[in-house]
Amino acid sequence: MWSNQHPLSIYIHIPFCRQKCHYCDFLSWPNRLEDLDGYVEALLAEVDLYRGRLAERPVATVFFGGGTPSLLTGVHTSRILEKLAAVGNLTKNAEITMEANPEQLTLDQLKAYRQAGVNRLSLGLQSTHDPLLAFLGRRHTAADFYQVVELARQAGFVNVNADLIFGIPGQQLEQWQESLETLEAMKIPHLSCYGLTFEPGTPLHRQRETGVVCAANEDLEYAMFRWGIEWLQQKGYQHYEISNYALPGKSCHHNITYWENREYLGLGAGAHGFLSGERTANSQQMESYVTAINQGDFPYMNSEKIGLTESVSETMFLGLRMRRGISETAFESRYGQSMASFFEKEIAELVQRGLLERNSGFLRLTEKGIDLSNLVFEKLLVSSR
Amino acid sequence: MFSTRQHKIRNFSIIAHIDHGKSTLADRLIETTGLVSSREMKEQLLDNMELERERGITIKLQTIRLNYKANDGETYQLNLIDTPGHVDFTYEVSRSLAACEGALLVVDAAQGIEAQTLANVYLALEQDLEIIPVINKIDLPSARVDEVKKEIEDIIGLDTEGIPLISAKEGLNIEDVLEAVVQRIPPPKGDEEKPLKALIFDSLYDNYRGVIGYIRMMDGEMKPGMRIRMMAGQKEFEITEVGVFSPGPIEQDVLRAGDVGYVAASIKDVRHCRVGDTITEAKRETQTPLPGYRKVTPMVYCGIYPAEGEKFEDVKDALERLQVNDAALVFENETSAALGFGFRCGFLGLLHMEIVQERLEREFDLDLVTTAPSVIYQVHKTNGEMVMIQNPANLPQPQEIRLIEEPIVKASIMVLNEYVGSVMELCQERRGMMKEMTYLDQTRVNINYELPLNEVIYDFFDALKSRTRGYGSLDYEMLGYRESQLVKLDILINGEQVDALSFIVHTSKAYERGRLMCEKLKDEIPRHQFAVPIQASIGQKIIARETVKALRKDVLAKCYGGDISRKKKLLEKQKEGKKRMRQVGNVEVPQKAFMSVLKLDS
Fold this sequence. Notes:
The structure holds 2 protein chains of 2 kinds. Chain A is built from 16 helices and 17 strands. Chain A is of the alpha/beta class.
């Protein structure tokens, strides 16, 4: 069920921000930049904890996520990547992504990242409309983004993603269309389009609960979702995952690791990992994270062994997020049983309801199935009892 | 022969409105007579049903023998017989009163007399009891002792000269109460030589001794080994044990005329030892059973279903175990297309129903779905046959029905003057007919209404409380059956009729009720892949409709490495929730939807 045939992916969490955005529920510590150097030292030490594991197989992708990873200096970045290369086997053509906010990014800094080995940039744009950016609590303008894209190209980045949000309160359908049109015209090779989620604990969630902010009309949000799917495909983007679009050859390999339910290492405070059938979550406190590492312990806050039934459930709801779906033969060779042996009745029902379809050896969502994907996923959980 | 022994016995109960301090006074009497210390009392005596304590009502009776050394130097045996405190249990109250010669009427010095108190006072007067008014809570700043005295004189016509003025909470003047009991309540006047005659005023099931009958000895004597006969139940048993409560059961050699105590006779079924029945000796029967026995019959029915189908046997076991102690609870198997296998249960009234439901949930840890309560309708068919219908699903086809009669109750509602308007409005909405209105004093009014029982059993009491800011009190008794324009209202979800939601309603209210139910259900039924129409119909005619709009998008925007565990748990939780839903056609209906229609008064 678990194999180390596949190369490993590594996620590195950088929980630092200048300021937290109103909708964000990721772990980040606004305004603690003075701790960044120490944090990087801890990260380097954490890599050593996985020395044995890293020796077993090559690393094919690295992803710096946050927070705002672009708060790392070029030196930080190269030290981390050098460490990975020294301890493990970082393949030559490994995909190395850094998330960045289009704020205060300089050409030198971008060059330094590129120099360090970063070859993919994921920019948190969210919208091309400044009032909407202000509403979300973003610290940049659309113009900043255009500037950064230009600098990134100068620095040699070909592989660039832009994150976009639709369904922002006050956002018009036309504005959403305009954002996509702008990015398409710029030939941004990868786009992630997310419906705005009101995550509990965020200021945005509170504002909605207290009635200060009203969620976007459901039909409008749906229209935006659908327009994106159809229009981007017309323009040559592949809708390869529920929320992700890429020009040919530009899909994100790191994220595909998650959706194929493969293993990955999580480094940094709050990072999640999945190794040898165990899902782990690192401590979310700087202090306990650093202390554990200094004592040579894994900084886990909790861990969960994934049994067969859980693994099958995860494979289903992760794999179906991808438009190509789940390969029936790959499933069978992984679990030694067919998908039908777990879900014959459920799959038949979902096919009959027009939510699932079989397509050249893959089981995948229909267009309707994408819209109602949660209904599908829920049906395809193996009950653990 | 009238024995001198009985001169030293006093049998009495306490009549009080909820919150007027009945149990506190009982505790003080126990304490003052030195039976148990106050610390022990907390542990021993108040350790009864959790539910009773929470609701401040007595469901199962408590009986206790106290020994009191009076001011005249003599020691008296005082038997305190508790009474249940709710209109559903009027019959039980009347039987406990029948076991006494006198009663203490406890009236709150601030609140004065309440409807329910009054109802019980009338019961006591019917039994010819000596009633001693006791004004409680005189320590309250809002106490108005003189006014309350006047109320007692004016409304009930009792002399208030020299009555005990107490504070049970503070332990003030408790001796006065005990002295009054000794001096004013007459001793029993039974004949120990005559054939055995004893009144059963309560019973409960004990795992070791079988059914324990709580009894008041009227004539003769009772001892272990004696063969007894239940005069109404027509069953014979051999006594294994007799005793008194002081405060726990204490075995005695014999119980004699005038005594209050218990009898055990290896009785397996509580229904063989019914409240109100007369016990006599099998080989020497009394000529005349005690008057007033009636078999209590359920007035309100509802369906009780396990929330999870596989718990059917558990619910059955639990109901059987409750029934062992509750002769008034009846149930039989019932099957619903929507809810599966369950039970149709009959109760004395709404409170009784709620208590049983709560006990099933708390004491047996069951998750239940209950259907709307129904009364028993008498349906006269065109073929001359008459059927009793307590499940709306069983109502014959309209063309087979000549007429339907519904039960009517006489309700007496006591409120403050300022709420008379809203109470009349409420009663009018509930098809009430006003019969009488009496001003008890300048501020309080007693209003008598004739109300259809099916209007009372919904949320009448809640509505009354909310419209009178909690001050209205209600008492009702069965009046009889009356012809009425009733129809069966059905609910259709996505075109499928849901039997568990059908109910019988007066024509004039069918439209409104149908509309309200559709609205409620619309909020409770989750959105599906398709639009779900919810309709209310009478026969083939649709009278109300709502639609649960189709779900267009249910998408998790992001799912990356750090989201997987959390999202999986979310999906699992959702699936778990749906597993517990009921399938109506291809629509998933949450349990809550079935319950939400029980309270429609907005």
